[in-house]
Amino acid sequence: MTATRQFPWDHPRFKSWISVARACQVMNQILAREIASLDIKPPHLDILVNLYRFEGLTQQDLARKLLVGRSNMSMLLPQMEKRGLITRRGDENDRRVLRLYLTDDGRALAEKAMDIQTKVIDRMMETSTLEECMSVANVMDRLTAALLLRDGR
C-alpha cells in the first residue's frame, strides 16, 4: 500500500503564500511601469522613500531596512549620487561614518514618486475595506517578524 503524496499546492498555507507572492510581483511590475517616467526603478524608490523618512541613515542602516546586502547599496548609491539625488556627509560624532541625505532634487523626486506609489497602492487596495487592509498588514508583519527571527536577523 502506497501513501498518497501531499504536494505543496494542496496545502492551504501554500495557496495563501502564492497569492501574496503574486500580488507583490504584480504590484512591483505596475509600480515599475508607473515610475519609469521618473527614470527610476523600485529599488531607487525604496532608497528615496527611506531617506525621505529617515534622513541621515548610514549605508549599512539603509541596507538593513531594505533587507538587502551592502553590495546592492554599493551599486545603487553611486548612480543616485551621480544624478544629484543623494549626498553623503560625514557624521558629526564619528568621522569614520558617512550618512546619506537627499538633495533638493532627490527630495522633489521622492515626493513625485511617493505620489505615484500612493495612487498605485490606492488602486490596488480599493477592493478591500480598511479593516481588511489592516488585517493583511498585521498578518504580514507577524510573518515577516517570524521569518526574520528564524533567519537570525
Automatic annotation (TrEMBL):
Any idea which UniProt keywords this protein has?
DNA-binding, Transcription, Transcription regulation
Recorded hits in SUPFAM superfamilies, A to Z, give: Winged helix' DNA-binding domain (SSF46785)
Ranges where the HTH marR-type domain occurs:
1-145
Instruction: Please indicate which superkingdom the organism of origin belongs to.
Output: Bacteria
Q: Which SMART domains match?
A: HTH_MARR
- Signal peptide boundaries: none
Keyword DNA-binding part of the UniProt annotation: yes
Q: Which GO terms fall under molecular function for this chain's record?
A: DNA binding
Q: What name is this protein filed under? A: DNA-binding MarR family transcriptional regulator
| Source organism | Rhizobium aquaticum
